[in-house]
Amino acid sequence: MREAVSRHVRDGQSLYLAGFTHLIPFSFGHEIIRQERRHLTLCRATPDLVYDQMIAAGVADRVVFSYAGNPGVGLLHCFRRAVEGGLIEIEEYSHFELLGRLQAAASGLPFWPLLALDNDLTRQRGRPVVESPFGPERVAVVEPLRPDVTLVHAHMADEDGNVYSWGLLGDVREAALAADKVLVSVEEILPVEALREQRDHLLLPGFRVTALALEPWGAHPSYVQGRYDRDQLFYQEWDHLSRDPVEATAWLERFVLAVADRRAYLDLFQPERLELLRRAAGDG
Amino acid sequence: MDESRRRDMAVVGARLLRDRERVLVGVGMPNLAANLAKRVHAPELVLIYESGVIDARPPRLPLSIGDPDLVRTSLCTLPMTDLFSQYLQTGWIDVGFLGGAQVDRRGNLNSTVIGSYRSPEVRLAGSGGAADIASFSKRTLIVMPHEPKRFPEQVDFVTSPGHRDGRVQGRGPSHVITDLGLLDFDERGEMRLVATHRGVTVDEVLERTGFSLQVSSEVGEIPAPTAEELAAYRELAGRPS
Protein backbone atom coordinates (compact mmCIF):
# COMPACT_ATOMS: atom_id res chain seq x y z
CA MET A 1 0.00 0.00 0.00
CA ARG A 2 2.62 2.48 1.10
CA GLU A 3 4.95 1.54 -1.73
CA ALA A 4 2.22 1.48 -4.38
CA VAL A 5 1.20 5.04 -3.52
CA SER A 6 4.73 6.38 -3.13
CA ARG A 7 5.81 4.90 -6.47
CA HIS A 8 2.76 5.65 -8.59
CA VAL A 9 0.81 8.60 -7.20
CA ARG A 10 2.34 12.02 -7.90
CA ASP A 11 1.34 15.57 -7.05
CA GLY A 12 -0.88 17.15 -9.67
CA GLN A 13 -2.21 13.89 -11.10
CA SER A 14 -5.81 12.97 -11.80
CA LEU A 15 -7.00 9.99 -9.78
CA TYR A 16 -10.15 7.89 -9.88
CA LEU A 17 -10.92 5.97 -6.69
CA ALA A 18 -13.51 3.54 -8.04
CA GLY A 19 -16.52 1.85 -6.44
CA PHE A 20 -20.15 2.88 -6.11
CA THR A 21 -21.11 2.62 -2.40
CA HIS A 22 -19.47 -0.83 -2.51
CA LEU A 23 -15.68 -1.44 -2.66
CA ILE A 24 -14.63 2.16 -2.06
CA PRO A 25 -10.84 2.13 -1.63
CA PHE A 26 -10.72 4.12 1.62
CA SER A 27 -7.36 2.68 2.58
CA PHE A 28 -5.76 4.08 -0.59
CA GLY A 29 -7.40 7.44 0.13
CA HIS A 30 -5.96 7.51 3.63
CA GLU A 31 -2.50 6.53 2.42
CA ILE A 32 -2.57 9.38 -0.12
CA ILE A 33 -3.46 11.77 2.71
CA ARG A 34 -0.60 10.41 4.85
CA GLN A 35 1.87 10.84 2.02
CA GLU A 36 0.73 14.45 1.66
CA ARG A 37 0.01 14.49 -2.05
CA ARG A 38 -1.15 17.88 -3.30
CA HIS A 39 -2.96 19.53 -6.25
CA LEU A 40 -4.76 16.34 -7.25
CA THR A 41 -7.78 16.16 -9.51
CA LEU A 42 -10.11 13.69 -7.80
CA CYS A 43 -12.60 11.97 -10.11
CA ARG A 44 -15.47 9.78 -8.87
CA ALA A 45 -19.14 9.45 -9.75
CA THR A 46 -19.93 9.73 -6.04
CA PRO A 47 -17.20 11.52 -4.07
CA ASP A 48 -18.61 9.92 -0.91
CA LEU A 49 -16.82 10.23 2.42
CA VAL A 50 -13.48 9.23 0.96
CA TYR A 51 -13.22 12.44 -1.09
CA ASP A 52 -14.79 14.51 1.68
CA GLN A 53 -11.88 13.37 3.86
CA MET A 54 -9.28 13.92 1.14
CA ILE A 55 -10.66 17.41 0.45
CA ALA A 56 -10.57 18.21 4.17
CA ALA A 57 -6.95 17.05 4.21
CA GLY A 58 -6.07 19.48 1.42
CA VAL A 59 -4.93 17.03 -1.26
CA ALA A 60 -7.32 18.22 -4.00
CA ASP A 61 -7.51 21.24 -6.29
CA ARG A 62 -10.32 19.92 -8.41
CA VAL A 63 -13.15 17.37 -8.25
CA VAL A 64 -14.85 15.71 -11.24
CA PHE A 65 -18.10 14.07 -10.14
CA SER A 66 -21.80 13.42 -10.62
CA TYR A 67 -23.27 13.07 -7.09
CA ALA A 68 -21.60 14.74 -4.13
CA GLY A 69 -23.83 13.55 -1.30
CA ASN A 70 -23.48 11.31 1.74
CA PRO A 71 -25.64 8.48 0.38
CA GLY A 72 -28.82 8.05 2.41
CA VAL A 73 -27.68 10.63 4.98
CA GLY A 74 -27.32 14.09 3.45
CA LEU A 75 -24.58 16.33 2.13
CA LEU A 76 -20.80 16.15 2.15
CA HIS A 77 -19.90 19.02 4.44
CA CYS A 78 -16.17 19.35 3.67
CA PHE A 79 -16.88 19.25 -0.08
CA ARG A 80 -19.67 21.77 0.38
CA ARG A 81 -17.52 24.20 2.38
CA ALA A 82 -14.71 23.93 -0.14
CA VAL A 83 -17.05 24.65 -3.08
CA GLU A 84 -18.93 27.46 -1.33
CA GLY A 85 -15.60 28.98 -0.26
CA GLY A 86 -14.11 28.70 -3.75
CA LEU A 87 -11.29 26.47 -2.51
CA ILE A 88 -11.72 23.76 -5.11
CA GLU A 89 -12.81 23.72 -8.73
CA ILE A 90 -15.56 21.38 -9.79
CA GLU A 91 -16.49 19.70 -13.03
CA GLU A 92 -19.91 18.12 -12.89
CA TYR A 93 -21.95 15.59 -14.88
CA SER A 94 -24.92 13.29 -14.55
CA HIS A 95 -24.05 9.67 -13.75
CA PHE A 96 -24.78 8.61 -17.32
CA GLU A 97 -22.49 11.27 -18.76
CA LEU A 98 -19.65 10.48 -16.37
CA LEU A 99 -19.98 6.75 -17.07
CA GLY A 100 -19.94 7.56 -20.78
CA ARG A 101 -16.68 9.46 -20.33
CA LEU A 102 -15.14 6.39 -18.69
CA GLN A 103 -16.49 4.11 -21.42
CA ALA A 104 -14.90 6.31 -24.09
CA ALA A 105 -11.51 6.15 -22.39
CA ALA A 106 -11.79 2.45 -21.57
CA SER A 107 -12.64 1.72 -25.22
CA GLY A 108 -9.99 3.95 -26.73
CA LEU A 109 -12.57 6.17 -28.45
CA PRO A 110 -12.43 9.95 -28.92
CA PHE A 111 -15.99 10.37 -27.56
CA TRP A 112 -18.98 8.40 -26.31
CA PRO A 113 -22.52 8.91 -27.68
CA LEU A 114 -25.68 9.24 -25.63
CA LEU A 115 -29.09 10.71 -26.31
CA ALA A 116 -28.87 14.42 -25.62
CA LEU A 117 -29.78 15.65 -22.16
CA ASP A 118 -31.26 19.11 -21.80
CA ASN A 119 -30.68 20.70 -18.41
CA ASP A 120 -28.75 23.61 -16.94
CA LEU A 121 -25.54 21.59 -16.63
CA THR A 122 -25.48 20.62 -20.29
CA ARG A 123 -26.60 24.12 -21.26
CA GLN A 124 -23.77 25.85 -19.43
CA ARG A 125 -21.19 23.32 -20.52
CA GLY A 126 -22.28 23.38 -24.15
CA ARG A 127 -23.85 20.37 -25.79
CA PRO A 128 -21.61 18.90 -28.47
CA VAL A 129 -23.47 16.62 -30.88
CA VAL A 130 -22.56 14.47 -33.86
CA GLU A 131 -24.75 13.67 -36.85
CA SER A 132 -25.49 10.02 -37.32
CA PRO A 133 -24.05 8.82 -40.65
CA PHE A 134 -26.90 6.28 -40.84
CA GLY A 135 -29.97 8.43 -40.33
CA PRO A 136 -31.29 11.84 -39.35
CA GLU A 137 -30.41 11.56 -35.64
CA ARG A 138 -28.16 13.94 -33.82
CA VAL A 139 -26.48 12.33 -30.86
CA ALA A 140 -24.79 14.01 -27.90
CA VAL A 141 -21.21 13.10 -27.13
CA VAL A 142 -19.01 13.28 -24.05
CA GLU A 143 -15.22 13.30 -24.08
CA PRO A 144 -13.04 10.56 -22.61
CA LEU A 145 -12.03 10.73 -18.97
CA ARG A 146 -8.56 9.22 -18.65
CA PRO A 147 -7.35 9.31 -15.06
CA ASP A 148 -3.59 9.10 -14.56
CA VAL A 149 -4.21 6.44 -11.96
CA THR A 150 -7.33 4.45 -11.01
CA LEU A 151 -7.43 2.87 -7.55
CA VAL A 152 -9.60 -0.16 -6.87
CA HIS A 153 -10.45 -2.31 -3.87
CA ALA A 154 -11.66 -5.86 -4.58
CA HIS A 155 -12.41 -9.17 -2.89
CA MET A 156 -9.33 -11.14 -3.86
CA ALA A 157 -6.45 -11.61 -6.23
CA ASP A 158 -4.16 -14.46 -7.10
CA GLU A 159 -0.40 -14.34 -6.86
CA ASP A 160 -0.18 -13.29 -10.52
CA GLY A 161 -2.28 -10.21 -9.82
CA ASN A 162 -5.49 -11.36 -11.47
CA VAL A 163 -8.26 -9.57 -9.55
CA TYR A 164 -11.64 -11.03 -8.62
CA SER A 165 -14.76 -9.33 -7.33
CA TRP A 166 -18.57 -9.52 -7.38
CA GLY A 167 -21.68 -7.83 -6.09
CA LEU A 168 -22.29 -4.20 -6.98
CA LEU A 169 -19.54 -3.37 -9.46
CA GLY A 170 -20.92 0.08 -10.28
CA ASP A 171 -18.24 1.99 -12.17
CA VAL A 172 -15.24 -0.12 -11.15
CA ARG A 173 -14.41 -1.95 -14.35
CA GLU A 174 -14.84 1.07 -16.64
CA ALA A 175 -12.87 3.31 -14.27
CA ALA A 176 -10.01 0.83 -14.07
CA LEU A 177 -9.82 0.25 -17.82
CA ALA A 178 -9.98 3.99 -18.49
CA ALA A 179 -6.58 4.47 -16.84
CA ASP A 180 -3.15 3.21 -17.86
CA LYS A 181 -2.10 2.70 -14.25
CA VAL A 182 -4.33 0.66 -11.98
CA LEU A 183 -3.51 0.17 -8.29
CA VAL A 184 -5.48 -2.56 -6.56
CA SER A 185 -5.93 -3.54 -2.93
CA VAL A 186 -7.67 -6.78 -1.94
CA GLU A 187 -9.00 -8.54 1.11
CA GLU A 188 -7.11 -11.73 0.34
CA ILE A 189 -4.40 -13.09 -1.97
CA LEU A 190 -4.58 -16.77 -2.95
CA PRO A 191 -2.52 -19.15 -5.08
CA VAL A 192 -3.24 -19.05 -8.82
CA GLU A 193 -4.83 -22.52 -8.88
CA ALA A 194 -7.30 -21.59 -6.14
CA LEU A 195 -9.01 -18.91 -8.26
CA ARG A 196 -8.63 -20.23 -11.79
CA GLU A 197 -12.20 -21.61 -11.77
CA GLN A 198 -13.68 -18.27 -10.63
CA ARG A 199 -13.57 -16.88 -14.16
CA ASP A 200 -17.07 -15.39 -13.96
CA HIS A 201 -15.83 -13.16 -11.16
CA LEU A 202 -12.68 -11.92 -12.85
CA LEU A 203 -12.61 -8.13 -12.58
CA LEU A 204 -9.21 -7.41 -14.10
CA PRO A 205 -6.57 -9.65 -15.63
CA GLY A 206 -3.16 -9.30 -13.99
CA PHE A 207 -1.64 -7.59 -17.03
CA ARG A 208 -3.92 -4.55 -16.43
CA VAL A 209 -2.82 -4.23 -12.82
CA THR A 210 0.15 -1.98 -12.06
CA ALA A 211 0.49 -2.77 -8.36
CA LEU A 212 -1.32 -5.02 -5.90
CA ALA A 213 -1.57 -4.62 -2.13
CA LEU A 214 -2.99 -7.01 0.44
CA GLU A 215 -5.25 -4.82 2.60
CA PRO A 216 -7.93 -6.53 4.71
CA TRP A 217 -10.79 -4.14 5.56
CA GLY A 218 -9.41 -1.77 2.93
CA ALA A 219 -12.90 -0.50 2.06
CA HIS A 220 -14.17 0.32 5.57
CA PRO A 221 -16.54 2.20 6.21
CA SER A 222 -17.67 1.15 2.72
CA TYR A 223 -18.16 -2.59 2.33
CA VAL A 224 -17.13 -5.78 0.59
CA GLN A 225 -20.09 -8.02 -0.22
CA GLY A 226 -20.00 -11.18 1.88
CA ARG A 227 -16.98 -9.98 3.90
CA TYR A 228 -18.20 -7.01 5.94
CA ASP A 229 -21.24 -4.76 5.65
CA ARG A 230 -21.36 -1.01 5.15
CA ASP A 231 -20.71 0.81 8.42
CA GLN A 232 -23.92 2.86 8.29
CA LEU A 233 -23.24 4.28 11.73
CA PHE A 234 -19.96 5.77 10.54
CA TYR A 235 -21.69 7.47 7.61
CA GLN A 236 -24.03 9.09 10.15
CA GLU A 237 -21.21 9.95 12.56
CA TRP A 238 -19.25 11.62 9.77
CA ASP A 239 -22.31 13.69 8.86
CA HIS A 240 -22.34 15.00 12.41
CA LEU A 241 -18.64 15.55 13.05
CA SER A 242 -17.72 16.94 9.61
CA ARG A 243 -20.14 19.86 10.04
CA ASP A 244 -17.35 21.40 12.12
CA PRO A 245 -14.06 21.78 10.21
CA VAL A 246 -12.10 21.55 13.47
CA GLU A 247 -13.69 18.23 14.33
CA ALA A 248 -13.12 16.91 10.81
CA THR A 249 -9.43 17.82 11.06
CA ALA A 250 -9.19 16.22 14.49
CA TRP A 251 -10.71 13.02 13.11
CA LEU A 252 -8.20 12.96 10.25
CA GLU A 253 -5.37 13.57 12.70
CA ARG A 254 -6.39 10.64 14.89
CA PHE A 255 -7.65 8.09 12.35
CA VAL A 256 -5.43 8.82 9.35
CA LEU A 257 -2.31 10.89 10.06
CA ALA A 258 -1.43 9.42 13.46
CA VAL A 259 -1.76 5.79 12.34
CA ALA A 260 0.93 3.90 10.44
CA ASP A 261 -1.36 1.69 8.40
CA ARG A 262 -4.75 0.04 8.02
CA ARG A 263 -4.23 -2.31 10.94
CA ALA A 264 -3.57 0.61 13.29
CA TYR A 265 -6.66 2.37 11.92
CA LEU A 266 -8.81 -0.69 12.62
CA ASP A 267 -7.44 -0.89 16.17
CA LEU A 268 -9.14 2.44 16.88
CA PHE A 269 -12.57 0.86 16.40
CA GLN A 270 -14.25 -1.38 18.97
CA PRO A 271 -13.64 -5.00 17.92
CA GLU A 272 -17.35 -5.70 18.56
CA ARG A 273 -18.31 -3.09 16.00
CA LEU A 274 -16.18 -4.68 13.29
CA GLU A 275 -17.36 -8.13 14.30
CA LEU A 276 -20.98 -7.03 13.86
CA LEU A 277 -20.22 -5.77 10.34
CA ARG A 278 -18.50 -9.04 9.54
CA ARG A 279 -21.37 -11.12 10.83
CA ALA A 280 -24.01 -8.98 9.09
CA ALA A 281 -22.29 -9.67 5.78
CA GLY A 282 -23.10 -13.38 6.03
CA ASP A 283 -21.94 -15.33 3.04
CA GLY A 284 -23.45 -13.31 0.30
CA MET B 1 -41.69 17.88 9.37
CA ASP B 2 -43.75 15.90 11.81
CA GLU B 3 -43.84 12.16 11.49
CA SER B 4 -47.51 11.84 10.47
CA ARG B 5 -46.99 14.23 7.53
CA ARG B 6 -43.91 12.33 6.47
CA ARG B 7 -45.94 9.13 6.66
CA ASP B 8 -48.79 10.60 4.61
CA MET B 9 -46.33 11.59 1.87
CA ALA B 10 -44.93 8.08 1.74
CA VAL B 11 -48.42 6.57 1.60
CA VAL B 12 -49.53 8.81 -1.29
CA GLY B 13 -46.29 8.15 -3.15
CA ALA B 14 -46.78 4.43 -2.72
CA ARG B 15 -50.38 4.54 -3.99
CA LEU B 16 -49.22 6.10 -7.26
CA LEU B 17 -47.15 3.04 -8.08
CA ARG B 18 -48.88 0.16 -9.85
CA ASP B 19 -48.05 -3.50 -9.46
CA ARG B 20 -45.49 -4.86 -11.95
CA GLU B 21 -44.20 -1.42 -12.90
CA ARG B 22 -40.45 -0.99 -13.10
CA VAL B 23 -39.55 1.92 -10.86
CA LEU B 24 -36.14 3.53 -10.61
CA VAL B 25 -35.98 4.59 -7.01
CA GLY B 26 -34.15 7.68 -5.74
CA VAL B 27 -32.64 8.06 -2.32
CA GLY B 28 -34.72 9.19 0.71
CA MET B 29 -38.52 9.50 0.54
CA PRO B 30 -38.86 7.78 -2.90
CA ASN B 31 -37.10 4.80 -1.40
CA LEU B 32 -39.52 4.75 1.53
CA ALA B 33 -42.61 5.10 -0.69
CA ALA B 34 -41.55 2.45 -3.20
CA ASN B 35 -40.72 -0.05 -0.48
CA LEU B 36 -44.08 0.70 1.14
CA ALA B 37 -45.94 0.05 -2.14
CA LYS B 38 -44.19 -3.27 -2.53
CA ARG B 39 -45.29 -4.35 0.94
CA VAL B 40 -48.89 -3.18 0.62
CA HIS B 41 -50.50 -3.38 -2.82
CA ALA B 42 -47.74 -3.93 -5.37
CA PRO B 43 -45.81 -7.07 -4.43
CA GLU B 44 -44.54 -7.49 -7.98
CA LEU B 45 -43.28 -3.93 -8.25
CA VAL B 46 -39.75 -4.10 -9.66
CA LEU B 47 -37.47 -1.92 -7.55
CA ILE B 48 -34.46 -0.74 -9.51
CA TYR B 49 -31.70 1.41 -8.05
CA GLU B 50 -29.23 3.49 -10.04
CA SER B 51 -26.39 1.60 -8.35
CA GLY B 52 -27.32 -1.24 -10.74
CA VAL B 53 -29.55 -3.30 -8.42
CA ILE B 54 -32.44 -4.97 -10.27
CA ASP B 55 -35.57 -6.23 -8.46
CA ALA B 56 -34.48 -5.77 -4.86
CA ARG B 57 -36.61 -7.20 -2.06
CA PRO B 58 -34.96 -5.62 0.97
CA PRO B 59 -35.98 -6.96 4.38
CA ARG B 60 -35.45 -3.50 5.93
CA LEU B 61 -35.50 0.01 4.54
CA PRO B 62 -32.10 0.44 2.91
CA LEU B 63 -30.19 3.52 4.04
CA SER B 64 -28.46 4.07 0.71
CA ILE B 65 -29.18 2.92 -2.81
CA GLY B 66 -26.08 0.72 -2.84
CA ASP B 67 -26.70 -1.18 0.39
CA PRO B 68 -25.53 -4.77 0.85
CA ASP B 69 -29.12 -5.71 1.77
CA LEU B 70 -30.32 -4.61 -1.66
CA VAL B 71 -27.67 -6.68 -3.37
CA ARG B 72 -28.31 -9.78 -1.25
CA THR B 73 -32.01 -9.78 -2.17
CA SER B 74 -31.73 -8.70 -5.80
CA LEU B 75 -32.38 -10.63 -8.99
CA CYS B 76 -29.03 -9.32 -10.20
CA THR B 77 -26.75 -6.34 -10.17
CA LEU B 78 -25.77 -4.68 -13.43
CA PRO B 79 -22.75 -2.50 -14.11
CA MET B 80 -24.10 1.05 -13.97
CA THR B 81 -23.24 1.70 -17.60
CA ASP B 82 -25.46 -1.21 -18.68
CA LEU B 83 -28.36 -0.01 -16.55
CA PHE B 84 -28.22 3.57 -17.79
CA SER B 85 -27.65 2.80 -21.46
CA GLN B 86 -29.47 -0.48 -22.05
CA TYR B 87 -32.43 -0.14 -19.68
CA LEU B 88 -32.98 3.55 -18.93
CA GLN B 89 -32.00 5.18 -22.23
CA THR B 90 -33.95 2.55 -24.16
CA GLY B 91 -37.23 3.26 -22.33
CA TRP B 92 -37.55 0.20 -20.10
CA ILE B 93 -38.11 2.21 -16.92
CA ASP B 94 -41.81 2.95 -16.28
CA VAL B 95 -41.44 5.32 -13.36
CA GLY B 96 -38.60 7.51 -12.17
CA PHE B 97 -39.19 8.49 -8.55
CA LEU B 98 -37.24 11.58 -7.50
CA GLY B 99 -36.82 14.03 -4.67
CA GLY B 100 -34.96 17.34 -4.73
CA ALA B 101 -34.58 20.76 -3.16
CA GLN B 102 -36.89 22.80 -5.43
CA VAL B 103 -39.58 22.22 -8.04
CA ASP B 104 -41.24 24.87 -10.20
CA ARG B 105 -44.62 25.13 -11.94
CA ARG B 106 -43.32 23.20 -14.97
CA GLY B 107 -41.97 20.36 -12.85
CA ASN B 108 -38.33 21.27 -13.36
CA LEU B 109 -36.38 19.87 -10.45
CA ASN B 110 -33.31 21.30 -8.73
CA SER B 111 -30.97 19.14 -6.69
CA THR B 112 -27.76 20.99 -7.55
CA VAL B 113 -27.49 24.42 -5.96
CA ILE B 114 -29.36 27.15 -4.09
CA GLY B 115 -28.28 30.55 -5.40
CA SER B 116 -26.02 30.87 -8.38
CA TYR B 117 -23.95 28.00 -9.70
CA ARG B 118 -20.68 29.95 -9.61
CA SER B 119 -21.13 31.40 -6.13
CA PRO B 120 -23.59 29.12 -4.38
CA GLU B 121 -25.48 29.89 -1.20
CA VAL B 122 -25.89 26.18 -0.63
CA ARG B 123 -24.11 23.60 -2.68
CA LEU B 124 -26.26 20.44 -2.89
CA ALA B 125 -25.30 16.94 -4.03
CA GLY B 126 -26.03 17.39 -7.75
CA SER B 127 -27.71 15.19 -10.30
CA GLY B 128 -26.43 11.71 -9.73
CA GLY B 129 -28.76 9.83 -12.04
CA ALA B 130 -31.67 12.28 -11.60
CA ALA B 131 -31.15 14.20 -14.87
CA ASP B 132 -30.94 10.90 -16.74
CA ILE B 133 -33.94 9.38 -14.98
CA ALA B 134 -36.12 12.47 -15.59
CA SER B 135 -35.08 12.51 -19.25
CA PHE B 136 -35.64 8.85 -20.07
CA SER B 137 -38.33 7.35 -17.76
CA LYS B 138 -41.86 6.92 -19.11
CA ARG B 139 -43.12 9.17 -16.31
CA THR B 140 -41.69 10.65 -13.16
CA LEU B 141 -43.03 11.18 -9.66
CA ILE B 142 -41.63 13.99 -7.55
CA VAL B 143 -41.80 14.17 -3.79
CA MET B 144 -41.10 17.41 -1.94
CA PRO B 145 -41.91 19.08 1.40
CA HIS B 146 -44.37 21.90 0.71
CA GLU B 147 -42.58 25.19 1.50
CA PRO B 148 -42.63 28.46 -0.48
CA LYS B 149 -38.88 28.47 -1.11
CA ARG B 150 -39.08 24.90 -2.41
CA PHE B 151 -41.85 25.88 -4.87
CA PRO B 152 -40.40 29.00 -6.58
CA GLU B 153 -41.60 30.51 -9.84
CA GLN B 154 -38.42 29.16 -11.41
CA VAL B 155 -35.94 26.78 -9.84
CA ASP B 156 -32.43 28.19 -9.27
CA PHE B 157 -30.98 25.43 -11.43
CA VAL B 158 -32.64 22.87 -13.70
CA THR B 159 -30.99 19.62 -12.70
CA SER B 160 -33.77 17.44 -14.12
CA PRO B 161 -36.08 18.74 -16.84
CA GLY B 162 -39.85 18.83 -16.30
CA HIS B 163 -42.41 19.87 -18.90
CA ARG B 164 -40.28 21.79 -21.34
CA ASP B 165 -38.49 21.21 -24.61
CA GLY B 166 -35.66 18.76 -24.64
CA ARG B 167 -36.83 15.88 -22.54
CA VAL B 168 -35.77 12.87 -24.55
CA GLN B 169 -38.75 10.57 -24.12
CA GLY B 170 -41.62 9.81 -21.77
CA ARG B 171 -44.37 12.05 -20.46
CA GLY B 172 -42.36 13.85 -17.80
CA PRO B 173 -43.54 14.46 -14.25
CA SER B 174 -47.04 13.11 -13.63
CA HIS B 175 -47.42 14.09 -9.96
CA VAL B 176 -45.82 16.03 -7.14
CA ILE B 177 -46.44 14.56 -3.70
CA THR B 178 -46.10 16.91 -0.74
CA ASP B 179 -46.89 16.96 2.96
CA LEU B 180 -49.93 19.14 2.17
CA GLY B 181 -51.40 17.35 -0.80
CA LEU B 182 -51.13 15.98 -4.30
CA LEU B 183 -50.47 17.95 -7.47
CA ASP B 184 -50.57 16.94 -11.12
CA PHE B 185 -49.88 18.72 -14.41
CA ASP B 186 -52.46 19.95 -16.91
CA GLU B 187 -52.24 19.43 -20.67
CA ARG B 188 -49.93 22.45 -20.99
CA GLY B 189 -47.57 20.99 -18.39
CA GLU B 190 -48.56 23.43 -15.62
CA MET B 191 -48.72 22.20 -12.04
CA ARG B 192 -52.20 21.97 -10.47
CA LEU B 193 -53.50 21.10 -7.01
CA VAL B 194 -55.79 18.07 -7.14
CA ALA B 195 -56.11 16.88 -3.54
CA THR B 196 -55.16 17.78 0.00
CA HIS B 197 -54.39 15.75 3.07
CA ARG B 198 -57.06 15.64 5.78
CA GLY B 199 -57.28 18.93 7.63
CA VAL B 200 -55.32 20.91 5.05
CA THR B 201 -57.12 23.79 3.30
CA VAL B 202 -56.60 24.94 -0.27
CA ASP B 203 -55.61 28.38 1.06
CA GLU B 204 -52.89 26.84 3.15
CA VAL B 205 -51.47 25.12 0.06
CA LEU B 206 -51.59 28.36 -1.94
CA GLU B 207 -49.85 30.23 0.86
CA ARG B 208 -47.08 27.70 1.00
CA THR B 209 -46.47 27.72 -2.75
CA GLY B 210 -44.05 30.32 -4.10
CA PHE B 211 -45.89 30.81 -7.39
CA SER B 212 -49.58 31.25 -8.19
CA LEU B 213 -50.76 27.68 -8.25
CA GLN B 214 -53.66 26.43 -10.34
CA VAL B 215 -56.37 24.65 -8.41
CA SER B 216 -58.43 21.85 -9.92
CA SER B 217 -62.19 22.48 -10.04
CA GLU B 218 -62.70 19.62 -7.63
CA VAL B 219 -60.05 19.34 -4.98
CA GLY B 220 -60.44 16.00 -3.24
CA GLU B 221 -59.38 14.89 0.19
CA ILE B 222 -56.74 12.18 0.32
CA PRO B 223 -58.12 9.13 2.16
CA ALA B 224 -56.42 8.36 5.47
CA PRO B 225 -53.82 5.61 5.54
CA THR B 226 -55.35 2.17 5.91
CA ALA B 227 -54.45 -0.15 8.77
CA GLU B 228 -52.33 -2.15 6.39
CA GLU B 229 -50.46 0.92 5.17
CA LEU B 230 -49.88 2.09 8.73
CA ALA B 231 -48.51 -1.27 9.81
CA ALA B 232 -46.19 -1.51 6.81
CA TYR B 233 -44.99 2.06 7.31
CA ARG B 234 -44.22 1.46 10.96
CA GLU B 235 -42.22 -1.61 10.11
CA LEU B 236 -40.21 0.23 7.46
CA ALA B 237 -39.69 3.65 8.98
CA GLY B 238 -39.12 2.46 12.51
CA ARG B 239 -35.98 0.59 11.63
CA PRO B 240 -33.78 2.43 9.19
CA SER B 241 -31.20 -0.11 8.17
Write up what this structure looks like.
The complex is a heterodimer of chains A (284) and B (241). Chain A contains twelve helices and 14 strands. Chain A starts with a helix and ends with a helix. Chain A has 284 residues and is an alpha/beta fold. The mean pLDDT of chain A is 96. Chain B has helices spanning 3-15, 29-40, 68-72, 80-88, 130-136, 202-207, 227-237, and strands at residues 22-25, 46-49, 53-54, 76-77, 95-98, 102-103, 109-110, 113-115, 120-123, 139-143, 173-177, 181-185, 191-196, 214-221. In chain B, a hairpin with a 5-residue loop joins strand 12 (181-185) and strand 13. Chain B is globular. The relative contact order of chain B is 0.16. The mean pLDDT of chain B is 94.
Work out the strand percent of chain B.
Answer: 15-25%
Q: Distance between termini of chain B?
A: 21 Å
Element-level helix/strand string of chain B: HEHEEHEHEEEEEHEEEEHEH
| Backbone shape of chain A | globular
| Separate helix tally of chain A | 12
Give the biggest sheet of chain A.
9 strands, mixed
Task: Please identify the oligomeric state.
Answer: heterodimer
Helix count from the secondary structure assignment of chain B: 7
Helix coverage percent of residues of chain A? 25-40%
The stretches of 5 or more residues of chain B where confidence is low (pLDDT under 50) are none
Radius of gyration of chain B: 17 Å
What is the overall silhouette of chain B? globular
Arithmetic mean of pLDDT of chain A: 96
Question: Structural class of the helix and strand makeup of chain A?
Answer: alpha/beta
- Low confidence ranges of chain A: none
- Cα separation of the termini of chain A: 27 Å
Average pLDDT metric of chain B: 94
| Biggest beta sheet attributes of chain B | 8 strands, mixed
